[in-house]
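chain below, 66 aa
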Amino acid sequence: MNNSGKAFVSKLSDAEAEAAETQTWLDFALKCGYIDLDMYKGMNSDYDHIIGKLVNMARFPEDWRV
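prediction:
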């Protein structure tokens, strides 16, 4: 993998960490009553999907070259 591929994977890793942090904040928001359970479930599920996509992109970065 060349340097631009490594940089791409690094950015994907950063994005994955940010998405996981958002899930932590969703846990906090639910426990503090800022959001209801339905909103939590929907948003947490969306972030699970996003994280899964980011992981797959990082595993096969050559599929995402322009």
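The chain has one domain: 3-64. The radius of gyration is 15 Å.
thats it, cya
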